[in-house]
Amino acid sequence: MVIKMLELFKSIKLDKNSGAPLYMQLFNVISSMIDKGTLLPRTKLPSIRQMASLLDVNTVTVVNCYRQLELKGYVYAKKSSGTYVSTVLPPVDKKEYTNKYDYVDKNVILDEIYPGEDISILTSKIRFDKKTINFASATPSSNLFPVEDFKLVLNEVLDRDMGNAFNYQDSQGYRPLRFSISNLLKEHSVNCSEDDIIIVSGAQQGIDIISKTLLKDGDHVITESPTYRGAVAVFNSRRAVVTDVELEEDGLNLNLLEYHLKKHRPKLIYTIPAFQNPTGVSYSKSKRKQLVMLAEKYDTYIIEDDYVSELDFENKNFKPVAYYDKSGRVIYIKSFSKIFMPGLRFGFMVVPPHLKKHILGAKHATDISTSGLIQRALDLYIRKGFWHKHFYSMYETYKNRYTKVVNSLEKYKTDNISYKKPGGGLNIWLKLPYNCVVNSLLERAASNNIVFTPGRIFFSSTSSNLNNIRLSFAAVEDDKIEAGIEKLCKLI
Ligand SMILES: Cc1ncc(COP(=O)(O)O)c(C=O)c1O
């Protein structure tokens, strides 16, 4: 009987190349055996080691599978005895498990679209499947996520810290993590100690918390034009009056900026100085310095949104605006979503000392504390050297894609399509011929399995700039880039 049972398990086939985690594949097979009655209640499953050796997989795979089975009520564990099939079975909800790993939300792929925006033009025409050439998404595809390494540190934290990992944390952030980050920041010319850092659940939350701290109804905010709409959505939600100022090839038009500073006395200037989203523009050193001087002169603050400065493929080595700030005018916000795992919801801010108490108050009111488990795991991830390993691999992947996109554009674009090489980041901003209607292009591209983001999304509604598009290469497969650009140039 036992031998028959072992044969049964030995016949399980797991597909190491399918992309679906092995432990979930095993979970699906065993749960279906239980559903069908092939495994009867109270049957003892092979021990973890035995099962791992039968299937030639890691013991961690079996541990995770048994954990899932237990979690879903299929099995129960008896101390010092083993794992047994439950006597009461859970209701079968196949939908919950099948295709879970293929499922991608259209609205998530188009990650610059916000609730309430009319995206019917995009969603009605676009099918996302294996053939889609995705120049729309500026966030990495999930096959680039370092899941295995992160699983290791998560498990280590759980064993090490037990319940403490699930308690409320210091609202400012887990101190060892702040210390690890202050060390990382030295490589980016941001000099700060762990006391200046506040951990947040993503840069978006950082922008929201700063706005909550500094803005009240009717206050003015200056942004670049075009800009990241997620920030504008925050300023609007604070009922601020948003004025956008033209972005030039080396940063904001400073004459216009000074004019608005004098006229409106804004509370905040929101800027993305490195490889700006959507244009890819980086500020010159001189404009970085002048921006800080103007903020001092007109008694305002700067949010420096650093979402990808480290993706510097041509060694421009710009120092952050915060580097030039000697009088506490710059709030530096860092997102990790573009090089790490955006769904972790992790970012941090470096704040001027005189604002810290107020910002912490706003953070506490918003969130009490950021997830302790994630902070502890991330700290260990950095200390074990996984962070650097992962970063270099992402850097190489993105640089390779960047080079492919630029080379393909050089090969296929016609003279009436123009762009400036950003030298880094994740986006290329194309200016199309004046008579090219972007909405029609979008539809025609979609029917050729190509998606991109129309430029109008990044401008205020009054803007007349309608013939730009943003090509992002964070999620497009390398081998589809050249064909995608060739086709797109033809369609244009
Ligand atoms: C410029 C910019 N800032 C901030 C964010 C939000 O980042 P996070 O995921 O860290 O909240 C994004 C996301 O796309 C972005 O493009």
TrEMBL record:
Its EC number is 2.6.1.39. InterPro entries: Aminotransferase_I/II_large, HTH_trans_reg/aminotransferase, PyrdxlP-dep_Trfase, PyrdxlP-dep_Trfase_major, PyrdxlP-dep_Trfase_small, Tscrpt_reg_HTH_GntR, WH-like_DNA-bd_sf, WH_DNA-bd_sf. It holds the Pfam family GntR. Residues 20-88 form the HTH gntR-type domain. GO terms for molecular function: 2-aminoadipate transaminase activity; DNA binding; DNA-binding transcription factor activity; pyridoxal phosphate binding. It comes from the Bacteria. It is an enzyme of class 2 (transferase). Its cofactor is pyridoxal 5'-phosphate. Keywords: Aminotransferase, DNA-binding, Pyridoxal phosphate, Transcription, Transcription regulation, Transferase. In the C-terminal section; belongs to the class-I pyridoxal-phosphate-dependent aminotransferase family. Homodimer. This is 2-aminoadipate transaminase. It comes from Acetivibrio saccincola.
